[in-house]
């Protein structure tokens, strides 16, 4: 299987590129990071392993390189709590996730976390909270904005009006002052 030969392929490539012998996976990782020009890297690794360049790229970023970072499992409850506290902030989803991520990483400067893994976890928690909000609440992401719109009516007619308003906006000629329509 090509995955068992991945480190050897990286080592072969990096030693050829830099001209320095590497003895440990950590040295190989640092050698890859130090490359000024990584264009074509994954194609060359893929050729050695007889795989696709995208497979080499994805395996490196999603699996192989994670061995050099601290697992953040013990911090997951804290991160989930931060998402819960900030999900309704007046910011875009991306801004909320970035802010939580940056604040978390800044609070632990001596710990080396895999940034993308932490970001993905925060995003997953964000989506999980939205999904669990239930049938009476819908998440809108117009312009990537994270705003929660709740419907309080159980009648079909009012629900349809609310849905139409949310989908088509408030462009009604009968409402020039941009007020929410009266559904009663």
* Rg computed from alpha carbons, rounded to a whole number of angstroms: 24 Å
- Protein structure class: mainly alpha
The averaged pLDDT comes out at 80
Strand count = 2
Strand order of the largest sheet: 1-2
Number of helices: 8
End-to-end Cα distance: 66 Å
Q: Give the overall shape, derived from the CA principal axes.
A: elongated
β-strand amount: under 5%
Weakly predicted, low-confidence segments? 135-176
The H/E string reads HHHHHHHEEH
Main sheet characteristics = 2 strands, antiparallel
Helical fraction equals 40-55%
Polypeptide structure, described:
With 184 residues, this protein is mainly alpha-helical. Helix 1 (6-18) crosses helix 2, helix 1 packs across helix 3 (41-49) and helix 3 crosses helix 4. It has a two-stranded antiparallel ribbon with strand order 1-2. The protein is built from eight helices and two strands, in the order H-H-H-H-H-H-H-E-E-H. The relative contact order is 0.08. Among the domains are: 2-68, no CATH class; 73-131, no CATH class.
Characteristics of this structure?
mainly alpha, 2 strands, 4% strand, 184 residues, elongated
What is the topological layout?
Elements: H1 6-18, H2 25-34, H3 41-49, H4 53-62, H5 76-86, H6 93-107, H7 115-131, E1 137-140, E2 147-150, H8 156-168
Antiparallel strand pairs: 1-2
Helix pairs in contact: 1-2, 1-3, 3-4, 5-6, 5-7, 6-7
Summarize the structure.
The protein has 184 residues and is mainly α. The chain has helices at residues 6-18, 25-34, 41-49, 53-62, 76-86, 93-107, 115-131, 156-168; strands at residues 137-140, 147-150.
């Amino acid at each position: 299987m090509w995955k068992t030969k991945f480190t050897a392929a990286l080592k072969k490539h990096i030693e050829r590129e830099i001209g320095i012998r590497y003895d440990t996976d950590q040295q190989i990782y640092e050698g890859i990071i130090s490359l000024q020009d990584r264009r074509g890297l994954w194609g060359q690794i893929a050729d050695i392993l007889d795989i696709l360049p995208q497979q080499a790229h994805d395996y490196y970023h999603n699996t192989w390189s994670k061995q050099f970072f601290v697992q953040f499992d013990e911090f997951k409850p804290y991160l989930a709590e931060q998402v819960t506290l900030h999900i309704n902030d007046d910011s875009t989803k991306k801004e909320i996730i970035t802010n939580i991520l940056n604040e978390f990483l800044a609070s632990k400067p001596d710990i080396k976390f895999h940034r993308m893994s932490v970001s993905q976890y925060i995003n997953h928690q964000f989506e999980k909270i939205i999904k669990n909000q239930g049938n009476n609440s819908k998440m809108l992401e117009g312009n990537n904005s994270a705003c929660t719109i709740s419907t309080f009516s159980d009648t079909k007619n009012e629900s349809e009006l609310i849905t139409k308003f949310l989908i088509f906006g408030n462009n009604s000629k009968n409402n020039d002052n941009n007020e929410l329509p009266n559904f009663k």
